[in-house]
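Posting this for the archive.
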Amino acid sequence: MQTAVFIYAHPDDETFGAAGTIGLLRSKGWRVVLVCATLGQQGKCGDPALCSQEALGAVRERELRDAACVLDISAIHLLGYEDKALGGVPPGEIRRTLVAILRAETPELVFTFDPNGFNAHPDHVAISRFASDAVSAAADARWFPELGPAHAVTELLWTTVLEPWEEHPAMENAASADVVVDVSPWADKKEAALRAHRTQHLSIDRYFLSRPNLQALLGVETWRRAWPRATEGRADLPF
């Protein structure tokens, strides 16, 4: 079974920009694995608050698992790092963790944030750097030989920003997409997964549910190829 690994910083990252792509992959029989570096425990609890700040990490983990159930994600790896401090994680430590996952899961495709972190969030920027580094290290047998045979992914894909996201001033990366995916058949699932992240309703309402162009937001996802495709024209790849 072909495998795709999505590597993100927080619960809800997987839904905002990738839920439709996950739906597409699952419809084609791919196994989808999610890596989430933190539980977003320093984030908002909702307004009115749905839990205490101390309980937020546990609540957001449940929300993540609810969203993953909606999206039929095959497996979740929680790394347990502190929210809003991901950039301070020792690079060698997280490199080893991610290489172990990549060699165990042997994905064809890996998805993560672009180097700008999609919206310049420091944790997003950090996980982009760590994920891209790990993809390279996993393919090099000199790194961590005790973690198993080297594994080279076919393609690493980064988030990108196109309309209608560019209207938001925080979105600094206006690079055009290499891949534009029609995910409209999975728009309802994406909306349901967004709603599963109940504590994050303020952001979800602001960027999605309150928008007059909701269906446009839900129906298209865009990606940038981090480097040229390893094997051009492979018919077994989804895009």
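Confidence is low (pLDDT under 50) at residues 168-174. The two ends are 17 Å apart (CA to CA).
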